[in-house]
Amino acid sequence: MTCPVDLTDNAVRHNPPEGVESWVRLWTGVEGGQPVLRIADTGPVIPPDQVTGLFQPSRRLGAERVHGRDGLGLGLAIVAAVTVAHCGRVEAWPRAEGGPERAGHAPEVRTDSCAAGRHGTPYDLIRPLPTDRQGVGSRDDRSTQRPLSGHGRGRHAARVSVIRKTSPLSRRSLLRALGGGAALGALAGCGVPAAYVSPGDRAGADLSARDKRLTWANWPLYIDTDDNDTTKRPTLEAFEKRTGISVDYIEEINDNDEFFGKISPSLMNHQGTGRDLIVISDWMCARFVRLGWVQEMDRAKQPNVTKYLDPLLRSPAFDPGRKSSVPWQSGITGIAYNHRKVGREIKHVSDLWADDLKGRVTLLSGLDEAFALLMQGNGVDITQWTADDFHRVCDQVEKHVHSGQIRRFTGNDYIKDLSSGDVLACQAYSGDVIQLQADDPDIRFVVPEEGAELWAESLMIPNLARHKANAEKLIDYYYEPEVAAELAAWVNYVCPVPAAQDVLASSKDEDTAALAEDPLIFPDATMRRRLAIARDITSTERTEFAKRWNAIAGL
């Protein structure tokens, strides 16, 4: 619902103040196979040549347009980012008597809606309409007498709602007016590069040689800190001291989709993000690579990455040869269980469906996190799985939901359920289980005999980064085995630098040396043979698959 909510909220914010008769008109329907939402409202006259600026981040086009001062000026920029990334289209045009009219087009309901060749910048997709379109959408309902777009396609099942504003409007009242016609909803899309940036437009002027700094965005608690002072980061401070490069380290990434929404308006508008280095999950990395939003790295300047990167992680399907990404940390999605309470070993995915575990099993809620392990339980090679493999998994999970076998679907909160004993077995991440085992040695993690998914969260350099060479130098620094070992000893995820194992093993500290033997940090040969990186969900598959999975998981 993000786009309809933001469009309507924007209409309310920029209406005349209370005491002045004003209104917002909402129209929903289908045009040429596309769900469409159109919104018109009263307000000051907007010059036609300034309409495109409404979709720029933090652009208000003058104080007279701002009803409230509590917004950040990102509403329409977010609408544009989400819609374009999902192959939709946003249009806006000024009304002669004041106020803009906006139209959001969801992706076309057809399999080729995002076929090759459909691309362009937001300036192609977000544009003022021709002059003969201006003035439509006024109170006399002339808008219902013409096609919504300039392509002459008819509309079907149109709904028009007019809300007269004699008292403050809320998002809730606007959504109530939309009612069932808001099928535009999530703008379910295909993630195809509607805002694709060609290779020649990705690099900016690199200031690294004269400006010894860089900005790095990462997840919280994902780097080593000093035991006595958590504001100090030993490996990062050592890099700064050695190179003279100052690092502005920002722990701002809490969710892949949220972060995508934060920086995508800049990237799709060919603007810098203010960040030289980011860390996101590989399934999201795939989206950035497809959109052309990240730069290829110069491996000639990264000898450690070339030499030490784990062979299992070297060439994922979304980024062959890891030209645009380098794993920061890695991990395994497998099964965690309480061995004492279960009373036996779990060796297969099918063991989750045993009768004595009914109602005591959880699965991960995220589509990208959950599907691969379940496919492997069916003997599928996840490097080349098919749609039939996916739907077979969904059929199985749906059956276990209806039977009560699956207690619920979770994020990382499965940790609490497993610790309390409410859950006996669950899909889990290897890094979490290491922490659980420190408190409860009965908790075990297993890579099923059919295999498990190996994944990574990777470093990428976004387009127009101003300190690309500095970022490349920092990435290579963390691939020195000694540095990688120090980091691995703190974060406890699968280390992407196998050579760090010998460094830890040689430690004089007994606990540190023991980490070298932990297969959840350095998988042994048997475990490595069972690990695979899943083919990512393609742009054309995502809409259908997400819809089905989310319905099962209750999302």
TrEMBL record:
Which biological process annotations from GO are given for this protein? polyamine transport
**Molecular function GO terms recorded:** kinase activity; polyamine binding
Task: Spell out the protein name for this chain.
Answer: Histidine kinase domain-containing protein
Q: Which keywords describe this protein according to UniProt?
A: Kinase, Periplasm, Signal, Transferase, Transport
Q: Which domain of life is it from?
A: Bacteria
Give positions of region: Disordered. Answer: 96-162
| Subcellular location, principal | periplasm
InterPro entries registered for this protein in UniProt: HATPase_C_sf (IPR036890), HATPase_dom (IPR003594), His_kinase_dom (IPR005467), SBP (IPR006059), Sperm_putr-bd (IPR001188)
Q: What single Pfam family name could you report for this chain, choosing any that match?
A: SBP_bac_8
Q: Does the keyword Coiled coil apply?
A: no
Its subcellular locations are: Periplasm
What residue stretches are annotated with the Histidine kinase domain? 1-110
User: Under the cellular component aspect of Gene Ontology, which terms does the record hold?
Assistant: periplasmic space
Which regions span the lipid bilayer?
none
Basic and acidic residues bias: start-end ranges: 96-111
